[in-house]
Amino acid sequence: MFGWKKQKQSAEMKALPEHIAIIMDGNGRYAKQRNRPRVNGHYEGMQNVKRITRHASDVGIKYLTLYAFSTENWSRPKSEVSYLMKLPGDFLGAFLPELIEKNVRVITIGDDDALPEHTIKAVSEAVEKTKNNTGLNLVFALNYGGRNELVRGIKKIAGEVSKGKLDVEDISQGTIDRYLYTAGMPEPEMMIRTSGEYRLSNFLLWQSSYSELFFTDTFWPEFTTDELDQMISQYQKRSRRFGGLDEEEV
Ligand code: FPP
């Protein structure tokens, strides 16, 4: 009996997370440490998005969601915002052929109405060209905010109720899931934040209810695939109880 349990546990330990979400923080401090302008940190951050994406795809992760621009980031200096809005185009301009070759599908979440035309164009082209790919889903959170996402979803639900298409009594957690940007995606099993900050900063608030949290002091541009692998191994050893008990405690 004990042997069987052990065997079952080790099989569970080997399961890879399906969905990893990352708050890519520390670009500015990375640049400052090197006496470079902040935007250089974002440039190096973008280079790291390539390395981490390649790796996630190679190891068989199904969803990688990256917090590229939050609804709060508009308050940064105009020149930094412009640079950040240029990055998706630069990234996809250089990297899209490799993403296509790797069978990666590009998706975005967030309020794209407020994005500049050139950003929307670059991103929607990538979304369109990769829409039938079946490998890694590379999800860019662009002008994304968890509270904003919930407000938007609640408004849509209220609209359906007022049109008589939805009964209030039928609103469940599943209903809310379906009205979020992430409808149809699995919840992130792992949520990572780099740079020594310990906050969610309005990222995937609803979806991260049971995510395993990982923090590292490493600045995003220096976050390596080895460090990601170490976190994945730690994740595989953690006991996820979702408010219940471990099997041996029952
Ligand atoms: C937070 O670091 C990072 C951001 C607000 C932007 C993240 C964007 C990238 C990593 C590049 C995105 C790439 C693509 C392909 C869209 P910070 O600037 O707040 O760093 P700090 O806390 O050290 O100042």
Structure commentary:
The protein has a single domain, classed as Undecaprenyl pyrophosphate synthetase. Helix content is 46%, strand content 14%. It is built from 8 helices and 6 strands; from the N terminus they run H-E-H-H-E-H-E-H-E-H-H-E-E-H. Helix 2 (27-33) packs across helix 3 (38-59) and helix 3 (38-59) runs parallel beside helix 4 (78-101). The radius of gyration is 19 Å and the shape is globular. It starts with a helix and ends in a 13-residue tail after the last helix. Residues 1-11 have low confidence and may be disordered.
Mean pLDDT: 94
| SSE succession | HEHHEHEHEHHEEH
Low-confidence stretches: 1-11
| Strand percentage | 5-15%
Number of helices: 8
Mind telling me which CATH architecture this is?
A: 3-Layer(aba) Sandwich
Q: In CATH terms, what is the fold-level topology?
A: Undecaprenyl pyrophosphate synthetase
DSSP strand count: 6
CATH-level-4 superfamily name: Decaprenyl diphosphate synthase-like
Compute the number of structural domains.
1
Radius of gyration, rounded?
19 Å
Structural class comes to alpha/beta
Main pleated sheet: 6 strands, parallel
Strand order within the widest sheet? Answer: 3-4-2-1-5-6
Q: What is the helical fraction, as a range of percent?
A: 40-55%
Bound molecules: farnesyl diphosphate
